[in-house]
Amino acid sequence: MAKLVLIRHGQSEWNALNLFNGWVDTKLSDKGIAQAKEAGQLLAEKGIQFDQAYTSVLTRAITTLHLALEEADQLWVPEVKSWRLNERHYGALQGLNKADAATKWGDEQVHQWRRSYDVLPPLLEEQSETMTIDGKSYPAMDRRYQDVPAGELPKGENLKVTLERVLPFWDSDISKALKDGKNVVIGAHGNSLRALVKHIEQISDEDIMGVEIANGQPWVYDLDENLNVVSKDILTPEA
């Protein structure tokens, strides 16, 4: 039996400002740093040991993973980064304030874009080196994506498309490590992790909309040799 631990990054600077973040590479807020460290402390208290770590190529997830592993005295654990674990791409919504978007398009429309399984947000019409969001370059032109075929880089995603993007990496890397009996930790994002949870727990398209993963709160799964869920535990600080 192998353990799989999912950790959503701590609060980001843009989470704190209520902005659509997506693929824009923001850092953790002070609160997010504290949440990441607390996640590691919770793992240390449970005595969970890891053999392999995975994360996205976005700073807030990488930093969260490192802070958590450091608190758990396991910063040495081998690590693989993949763009496939990136947050859902929010398309043309990225960089907008969520409340302002609701005022412009209506609460119901924004709710659909955020929470529906298969409704796409407004897509970016172009991707260029000069395109910026709040002073940050659009990431498709970033060097970290230079080996990704241009046709695979998204201009906007819903959860369904995010799952389709994440699954190839699950199949090629993560699932193989788990089947080899390795304990795995993934430091990633709310929607890329929700996509994995949907797949792991075989949650319906409708029910996954009610699943929320809190910042810096480890989800711990025990999986059998066929990667069926034997047990699940969400770690929270003792009151």
Automatic annotation (TrEMBL):
Site positions per UniProt: Transition state stabilizer: 189
SMART domains documented for this protein: PGAM
GO MF terms, alphabetically ordered: phosphoglycerate mutase activity
Signal peptide bounds: none
The reaction(s) this protein catalyses: (2R)-2-phosphoglycerate = (2R)-3-phosphoglycerate
EC number: 5.4.2.11
Gene3D superfamilies hit by this protein: Phosphoglycerate mutase-like (3.40.50.1240)
Annotated InterPro entries: His_Pase_superF_clade-1, His_PPase_superfam, PG/BPGM_mutase_AS, Phosphogly_mut1
Amino acids binding substrate: 8-15, 60, 87-90, 98, 114-115, 190-191
Biological pathway: Carbohydrate degradation; glycolysis; pyruvate from D-glyceraldehyde 3-phosphate: step 3/5
Annotated coiled-coil segments of the chain: none
Role according to the record: Catalyzes the interconversion of 2-phosphoglycerate and 3-phosphoglycerate.
Family, per entry: Belongs to the phosphoglycerate mutase family. BPG-dependent PGAM subfamily.
Full protein name: 2,3-bisphosphoglycerate-dependent phosphoglycerate mutase
Protein source organism: Weissella hellenica
Source taxonomy: Bacteria, Bacillati, Bacillota, Bacilli, Lactobacillales
